[in-house]
Specification:
heterodimer, A: mainly alpha, 7 helices, B: alpha/beta, 11 helices
Chain lengths: 213, 269
């Protein structure tokens, strides 16, 4: 994206640059009125944007066209949606529980179909699938490590029995394996966050025209 | 095209049979243990150190004269099959925290960014304060509703700096806010108890919190507090299902050395 030349574009760039510095005054210094101004501006703006996009998406894009085509049953979710606003009235707030109950029940029901195969059967199959014919020692080591690691880690999450005796050894090993896994995750994400930070540093320099945009 | 239509009309689609068996077996186990639980059979939950640390955290806030903050994260709504149960378990734990706060007179601030969970949160807090004989101390203003991940996160960070809570409970379904809030809480020296079942966020809670409820420990904590025989029964049923799967993995692992695909074929049915 080239450096903007129109006044609105330049103003937008500088406002975002200033707001970024105001937000960074919190980790670099401490909580202060400048940070508070940026914080409240950001919260207010985001809420306004969400309100507008949600209203447009639901009423104009999702419900409007089907209703125009005569699909009158689309009015049911609209009524249920409006019932959520009874949350704001102490006397009739019980009415808001019906759309919430439908939303939660339908969500769980629809979500169940996507849980069992990828999270259980495919995981078990991947764990017990041996290396291909002619595989080397490293592949066999991975097979053994993954299988034992998975079994011990799952055993750690047996929650209604105390981890004593033989189970205690397996769950202790499971806990170590979980911690190794979490450490790997942590390292990976720290790298990703560093990339985000360098992106902000690049933006800082680009606005000042020190780095090319 | 014909095959697709045949698939749509089939009662059991090829490749999904075992998932159906697991689902039905899980339901049977849940039902059996829920039934036994209701009949009075005790289902214990193993010791969870983070739960024992909750009174310690609230006691710390009482000594320091500072508030306690609770938030369940914003990873998903109640209708989300992965995040919803985490939020429900977190609200069970919130009930316990609220009772402890009511007992000790500690101010509790709840940051609830999930609109569908708002009524439940409010009722849980109201019930907790009533149970402790202090209904007048409950106020809906204790619950701060801020929609959207970044605004919610920004507001919590600002709150940390202004109110400087003594103890933070980051328990529920978290996304990237876990690391930012955990680190923000660390900066102000708060005692922190975390918990999530989102694998990708656990490392951050482990790194930034004093105690963490890892994955399903979160559900167990919720069940151990509620003492609801149905929830405890589900938990035991789930454990038995896990042991069955562990047994299957051990058998499959050993068969792998003999290069027998028998169990894999059964699982692919």
């Amino acid at each position: 994206m080239p450096y903007p030349t129109d006044p609105a574009g330049i103003a937008g760039l500088w406002i975002s640059w200033l707001l970024m510095l105001m937000i960074y005054s919190y980790p670099l210094y401490k909580e202060n009125p400048v940070y508070r101004f940026a914080e409240h501006t950001y919260i207010g703006l985001m809420l306004a944007i969400m309100l507008i996009t949600t209203t447009i998406t639901t009423t104009i894009r999702m419900v409007g066209p089907p209703l125009m085509q005569g699909k009158v049953w689309y009015v049911i979710p609209v009524i249920l949606g409006f019932m959520m606003f009874f949350l704001l009235t102490p006397r009739y707030r019980w009415l808001s529980r019906y759309p919430i109950a439908i939303l939660v029940g339908a969500g769980f029901g629809l979500g169940m179909r996507g849980v069992l195969i990828p999270n259980i059967t495919k995981q078990v199959i991947s764990t017990i699938t041996p290396p291909a014919v002619g595989a080397g020692a490293v592949d066999w080591w991975n097979y053994i490590y993954i299988a034992i690691g998975t079994i011990c880690a799952v055993m750690y999450f047996v929650l209604t029995w105390e981890h004593r005796g033989a189970m205690g050894y397996a769950t202790r090993l499971g806990r170590w394996i979980i911690m190794i896994g979490l450490g790997a995750y942590f390292g990976n994400t720290v790298l990703f966050r560093m990339a985000m930070l360098s992106g902000r540093a690049q933006f800082f320099l680009q606005v000042l025209r020190i780095a090319p945009m | 095209m014909v095959k697709k239509e045949e698939e749509n009309m089939a009662i059991i689609v090829e490749g999904r049979g075992m998932a159906l068996v697991i689902l039905l077996l899980s339901y049977i186990l849940f039902y059996v243990f829920m039934y036994l639980g209701r009949k009075g059979r005790e289902i214990p939950v193993r010791t969870l150190p983070p739960m024992a640390a909750i009174p310690e955290g609230i006691g710390r806030a009482a000594e320091m004269g500072r508030p306690v903050m609770f938030t369940p994260g914003i990873a998903g709504d109640l209708n989300d099959p992965t995040q919803g149960p985490q939020v429900l378990a977190a609200i069970s734990i919130l009930g316990y925290i609220a009772r402890e706060c009511a007992k000790t007179g500690v101010k509790l601030d709840v940051f609830m960014p999930i609109p569908t969970a708002l009524p439940l949160t409010e009722e849980t807090l109201r019930t907790a304060y009533m149970a402790e004989g202090k209904p007048e101390e409950f106020s809906p203003d204790m619950i701060h509703f801020i929609a959207g991940q970044s605004p919610y996160l920004t507001a919590v960070l600002g709150y940390f700096q202004r109110e400087r809570p003594a103890t933070n409970f980051l328990i529920g379904g978290f996304y990237y806010e876990s690391v930012v809030m955990g680190e923000g809480g660390n900066t102000i020296g708060a005692f922190q108890i975390g918990g999530t079942a989102n694998t990708h966020q656990m490392p951050f809670l482990v790194a930034t919190c004093d105690y963490v409820l890892l994955a399903e420990e979160l559900y167990a904590a919720g069940a151990s507090i509620s003492k609801d025989p149905d929830i405890l029964g589900c938990l035991r049923g789930e454990d038995v299902m896990k042991l069955i799967l562990i047994a299957l993995m051990i058998i499959g692992f050993l068969l792998g050395f003999a290069r027998s695909p028998a169990l894999i074929n059964v699982l692919r049915w």
